[in-house]
Design a protein that fits this description.
Number of strands: 7
Strand order of the largest sheet: 1-7-6-2-3
Strand content: 5-15%
Order of helices and strands: HHHHEHHHEHHEEHEHEHE
Radius of gyration: 20 Å
Helix content: 40-55%
Structural class: alpha/beta
Bound molecules: zinc ion
Length: about 270
């Protein structure tokens, strides 16, 4: 599905770029005709859609995370265990960060959105995804001073041209008024892709991979920070980032992601 997404999109982009260069009386009419000829497609199912993003059917398939959930990790509970009850995960393997919240579960539609934003330059998806994140993270945002996106290593950033976590953080900043410090965290060594690694391998892959850039330390010290990322899988990456922020004397670190992997067998306490 992902592989089919880019050719038609890039043809559309190329035609639009060509049209921008076109001058004269016909360009307006030609642009209108192009909009009719190339309707926007739902990023998940490729059906025509009004506006950008996903169609109503795919939107309904997104699993938005709502209470009850673990107050620490944001993992949804299948039943309400009462206030302040933590998930087993939070008790047995507490992370360096204080709280995590996610807008949706990482399932098929969420995965398609994340991949389109990450690998297909679909930056037009960031406003909707960031809006859902701002809603999911409102209690964290009320207390936070700064947003810090999880960084890409510069080699990967150069190839991919922009950082999707940074794009999401900018949308959340616009909606919440919490400032972004985009260059606060640096990846100080390249890491393997986390995909396909076991939980301990993921942790050692990213251990010590991040630090707070020296010129940004004064913007982190004593502040309540929210780390922003697209997906939370094992939590190893955000945990390594949170450790780096705490070493730089952040007052606290919370995590806000678009989607989180939920292991159903670990959900109930
Ligand atoms: Zn759709």
């Amino acid at each position: 599905m992902d592989a089919e997404a880019s050719p038609s999109r890039s043809i559309s982009i190329h035609l639009r770029v060509a049209l921008k260069a076109c001058r004269g009386a016909w360009s307006h009419a030609a642009r209108l005709a192009l909009d009719i000829a190339l309707p926007t497609l739902c990023v998940a199912c490729r059906e025509p859609v009004d506006g950008e993003g996903v169609c109503a059917e795919c939107w309904a398939k997104l699993s938005f995370i709502a209470p009850p959930f673990c107050p620490r990790l944001g993992i949804p509970f299948v039943y309400d265990p009462g206030p302040d009850m933590l998930s087993m995960e939070a008790i047995s393997n507490p992370p360096a960060y204080a709280r995590a919240r996610a807008a949706v579960r990482y399932d098929a539609v969420a995965r398609t959105l994340v991949h389109a934003l990450k690998y297909q330059d679909r930056t037009d998806l960031a406003p909707a995804m960031g809006r859902w994140m701002a809603r999911a993270g409102h209690e964290l945002l009320d207390e936070a001073a700064v947003l810090v996106p999880v960084p890409l290593h510069w080699r990967r950033a150069w190839r991919r041209r922009y950082n999707q976590s940074g794009a999401l953080a900018r949308v959340i900043a616009e909606r919440s008024g919490v400032k972004v410090v985009p260059e606060a965290l640096q990846r100080i060594r390249p890491t393997q892709q986390q995909i396909g690694l076991s939980r301990p391998q993921r942790a050692s892959n990213v251990q010590g991979a991040f630090k707070v850039a020296a010129p940004e330390q004064s913007r982190i010290a004593g502040r309540r920070v929210i780390l922003v990322d697209d997906v939370l899988t094992s939590g190893a990456t955000v945990d390594a980032c949170a450790r780096a922020l705490l070493r730089a004397k952040a007052a606290s670190v919370d995590v806000l992601v678009f989607a989180r992997v939920v292991d159903s067998h670990k959900t109930p306490i």
